[in-house]
Specification:
Length: 137
């Protein structure tokens, strides 16, 4: 991921999608492009929801996530406390690099979809807590 993110593009896309919910997929594509990521999705950090806004290139991985039961075994929900505290979290807030290399979630689900690294950014409104997930191979 490139450290020069276009945050203004993401903000504009999110505002447009908040006004017109049909634009969330486009907003996720903008978020992926603006961060130099493989893909992006927005998920409810407090529940496991299928049908979440995602960039087009995340659709196959999301389908495998649901079909393979990974939604019930998603270790990344463990970032919640870090997300609340710092506003951002990565896989390395949960595991060491060596643990990631051996963990089934990373090796059996993410690796085949070329989704290795992850950063989650807190997106909150009222009592709702969402996580913008950006992924990189």
């Amino acid at each position: 991921m490139d450290a020069n993110f276009d945050l203004e593009a993401i903000e504009r896309a999110f505002v447009e999608a908040a006004v017109d919910p049909t634009k969330w997929k486009e907003a996720m594509t903008v978020a992926a492009r603006a961060t130099g990521s493989t893909g992006a999705l927005l998920f409810d950090a407090q529940s496991h929801l299928p049908g979440i806004p995602q960039s087009e290139n995340m659709e196959a991985a999301t389908e495998a996530y649901i079909q393979g039961g990974w939604s019930e075994r998603d270790v990344r929900y463990g970032i919640l406390s870090r997300l609340l505290q710092k506003g951002v979290a990565t896989d390395l807030d949960l595991f060491t690099a060596d643990q990631i290399e051996r963990h089934p979630y990373y090796q059996e689900f993410l690796a085949p979809h070329k989704l290795r690294r992850f950063a989650g950014v807190k997106v909150a409104s009222g009592d709702s807590l969402w996580c913008l997930s950006i992924s990189d191979p």
